[in-house]
Amino acid sequence: MRAHSPSSPLGHVVVIGGSMAGLLAAHVLSRHAERVTVLERDHYEAGSGPRSGVPQSRHTHVLLTSGMEALEELLPGVVRELEDAGAPNLSIPADLGVWQAGQWVSRANPSRPVMTGSRPLLDHVVRGRVLADPRVDVRTSTEVTGFLGGPDRITGVSVRGRGSDHQEYEELEADLVVDATGRGSRTPEWLTALGAGAPAEEVLETGRAYATCVFETDDAGSPDQVKGFYIVPDAAQPFGAIILPAEGDRWMVTLSGPRGQAPPTDPAGFVDFAAALPHDAPHKWLSTARPLGRPVGYRHTANRRRRYDLAARDRTGLLVVGDALCMFNPVYGQGLSVAALNAVALGRALAAPDLPSTHSLQRKVLRSSRGAWDVATGADSPMPGATGDAVRSGLVERLLNRYLERVRVRVPGDPVVCKAFRDVLFLKAPPTSLLTSPRVVFRTLLRPAIPTPPDLPTP
Ligand SMILES: Cc1cc2nc3c(=O)[nH]c(=O)nc-3n(C[C@H](O)[C@H](O)[C@H](O)COP(=O)(O)OP(=O)(O)OC[C@H]3O[C@@H](n4cnc5c(N)ncnc54)[C@H](O)[C@@H]3O)c2cc1C
């Protein structure tokens, strides 16, 4: 990076993509830049509706404990603002019927908070906060079409306006370009067009398919005594369900199935599909609720990580964040939290007395998504039909999987194992903590699993 004034050493920063990862990165970078320009292909909807550039926003989105804390660190007061806007704040497992490894998880086990408002609501609140800062400028209906510069140095982007009859092309210079364009990122192609190599990719695909539908009930009441359900799929039981409250007395319902058994996208078929779940409580509740519109399907659920940190150590001017860098099987609900953790890592790295190299920033950002990657690929590796070079299948991995299976069956009834497992799942502790805590190891290897009652648990 070129040197600029000590108070704004980054010069002009262009962030491509004005969704969660891009906005949070822009917020952090604005403290170290002369100016930050966010380029967003979409026109932001007035209010908080889904938009085409984030098609997954029609699906259930959970913000994990780690994501809530990271977001609060970046934008103090934002959790309260989300609650005031109607986003439910639930304690897990106290508030939910969580089914794992053939049993209900005891609701008396130690809990942690998650937020379950709709994705458009979350985006709306975060966008309002970030764009209120005059140091962040946003240009909507503006699509980036490629990079300027050469293989070793990215010096800007080419853009075209959208939505008008005549599309105007323009070149925009920048000292740092941040790619936050999500799952469809074209940075590998844009780098190739400049004569630079595309990054190595790690992939793990289970072929799971999802469908989501919004429901309402007559009395806006909770399903039975719980505030929702989370039916966790695993190698032995491949059907999953997430039923969670959202703002406006609505329920977000996502069902998932293995390769070849996708949930139907007609309302009646969607409800029938829930009969395949391992307990009948979610199906019973769905049968009494009313769908608001048709279910929406989703199939691109592979875990994919692009190793920009391994390529071109000397390249300057390009940083990749959010889903464009590392995307996860959505069943684990991690992507938003990781976008916030990426921004926190970026902010901490930039707080160092000397401006870090882009390569060093990239490594730190990637490291902040590592826990989520290890959780998702660790849980997906034993799934039937899992493919890709990130599948862990060696002897050590098989032993590790056997150990983790023992952990999973102890989660429902053992408060110590449940707490440790939930901390890993909510990205509050690394997966290795399940192997290094003597209490967890003792209970996992030497104590039998504690059975929980077969009926939906009361608190
Ligand atoms: C079905 C499903 C369910 C999910 N559930 C959860 C969940 O429960 N919890 C959770 O934390 N995560 C969940 N996720 C993941 C979460 O949606 C993503 O991790 C998150 O959206 C990533 O944010 P992002 O900013 O990186 O990308 P995105 O949110 O995808 O945004 C990319 C942005 O870039 C813009 N853009 C793209 N190309 C260009 C271009 N050329 N020029 C200008 N702008 C461009 C787009 O318009 C968009 O605004 C789920 C994902 C899916 C698919």
Automatic annotation (TrEMBL):
Signal peptide: none annotated. It comes from the Bacteria. Coiled coil: none annotated. It holds the Pfam family FAD_binding_3. SUPFAM superfamilies: FAD/NAD(P)-binding domain. Residues 13-352 form the FAD-binding domain. InterPro entries: FAD-bd (IPR002938), FAD/NAD-bd_sf (IPR036188). GO terms for molecular function: FAD binding. This is 2-polyprenyl-6-methoxyphenol hydroxylase-like FAD-dependent oxidoreductase.
